[in-house]
Specification:
Elements lengths: L2 E5 L2 E3 L5 E8 L3 H4 L1 E6 L6 E6 L6 E3 L7 E6 L4 E6 L8 E9 L2 E4 L3 E5 L2
Parallel strand pairs: 2-11
Antiparallel strand pairs: 1-3, 3-8, 4-5, 4-9, 5-6, 7-8, 9-10, 9-11
């Protein structure tokens, strides 16, 4: 059974940093890749960062490129999102996503609030 459990969200001041984690079970991030999305109140869900399977590369949304870094721990099967230089507009619920065996799987989300 595929499960995704996010953690690491919280309240941070503008300019600060946070690292989100997504623990996966029932599949491998190394084989299937993984993606971070976010959704702010009243807005559509948007792609933040994507880690492709094996070493095929990464991709980032335009609004976070250069500030966020996606990575994974293959041994622990954890997907990370390191966020730097956070801005109030980064405030959202962040979700971990994987497509496995033809189905979409989402985590429960973790709230990130950037405010002074």
């Amino acid at each position: 059974q595929v499960q995704l459990v996010e953690s690491g969200g919280g309240l941070v001041q503008p300019g600060g940093s946070l690292r989100l984690s997504c623990a996966g079970s029932g599949f491998s991030f190394w084989i299937y890749g993984g993606t971070w999305y976010r959704q702010a109140p009243g807005k559509e869900r948007e792609l933040v960062a994507k880690e492709s399977p094996t070493n095929l590369g990464t991709d980032y949304g335009a609004s976070v490129k250069g500030r966020f870094t996606i990575s994974r721990d293959n041994e622990k099967n954890i997907l990370y999102l390191q966020m730097y230089s956070l801005k109030p507009e980064d405030t959202a619920v962040y979700y971990c996503y994987v497509r496995w065996s033809g189905r979409d799987y989402w985590g429960q989300g973790t709230q990130v609030t950037v405010s002074s």
